[in-house]
Amino acid sequence: MTEPSYLTATRDAYDTVAADYTDYVRDELALRPLGRAMLAAFVEVVRAADVGPAADIGCGPGRVTAHLDALGLDTFGVDLSPRMIAIARREYPELRFEVGSMTALDQRDRSLGGIVAWYSIIHVPPEVHPAVFAEFFRVLASGGHLLVAFQVGDERRNPGPLWQRFGHTVSYDAYRLPPARIADLLRQAGFVMVGELLAEPGPDEKTQQGHLLVRKP
User: Fold this and answer.
1) Closest by Cα among 118, 169, 172 to 16
2) What is the CB-side half-sphere exposure of residue 35 using CA atoms within 13 A?
3) Burial readout 189-203 (b: 16 or more C-beta within 10 A, e: otherwise)
4) Other C-beta atoms within 10 Å of 65: how many?
5) What is the residue-level pLDDT of the chain in tens, covering all 217 positions?
6) Phi, psi of 114 (to 5 degrees)
7) Does residue 121 contact residue 146 with C-beta atoms inside 8 Å?
8) Residues 166, 95, 76, 80: is their CA dihedral positive or negative?
9) Rounded Cα gap, residues 42 and 48, in angstroms
10) How far is CA 117 from CA 53, 58, 98, 162, 217, in A?
């Protein structure tokens, strides 16, 4: 079966910029206190439900996976980019990281207690979101939680020019997403809303940052 072009483009782009991206986002969480608060809430509800480990889907170089681990959550990372996974394994050798796609997770049905998709659904075309959310629903146990984060808006962008300053030529898509639409799609997938946070743009941001926390009944 032929792989969708958006997956190939995203993998190739992140493989190309992996080292520079790792440096670029190294202090990201330190600059996002409200994002950290949502991650802390996610850890609390997943640990309280106690129905399985958590997966950081689209983990990149592993900084969110490591943050969740530091908060006491049994977690592992999954990313489309083999070079990102290689960096994550090198930086956090005590943690588990796997190459994989959110469109077809290599996890058993109802095997996870939590999923974080931290700015990773932004590389999936909006028409594919229902299938992705159905996949998340499949692998989560009853009582499991999902936290998604994304830039707020309603447009497709090409982040390639950002990486030209580092000497990379890449082309891939990223989508700014309307929170109400994502919340509606999550409900249609079977999730129950737990909480929503819209953070105003930080010093290096141009849009609001959306965070949605939902639960599988």
Assistant:
1) 169
2) 23
3) bebeeeeebebeeee
4) 28
5) 689 999 999 999 999 999 999 998 899 899 899 999 999 999 999 999 999 999 999 999 999 999 999 999 999 999 999 999 999 999 999 999 999 999 999 999 999 999 999 999 999 999 999 999 999 999 999 999 999 999 999 999 988 777 876 688 888 999 999 999 999 999 999 999 999 999 999 877 889 999 999 999 9
6) -165, 155
7) no
8) positive
9) 10
10) 15, 6, 15, 22, 19
Structure token pair of residue 102: 């959110």
DSSP-derived secondary structure letter, 85: H
Q: How many residues does the chain have?
A: 217
How crowded is residue 26: how many other Cβ atoms within 10 Å of its Cβ?
A: 12
| DSSP string for residues in 16-76 | HHHHHHHHHTTTTGGG-HHHHHHHHHHHHHHHHH-SS-EEEET-TTSHHHHHHHHTT--EE
For residue 8, what are its two tokens? 């190939």
| Euclidean distance between CA atoms 124 and 128, whole angstroms | 6
CA distance 85 to 95: 11
pTM across the whole model: 0.95
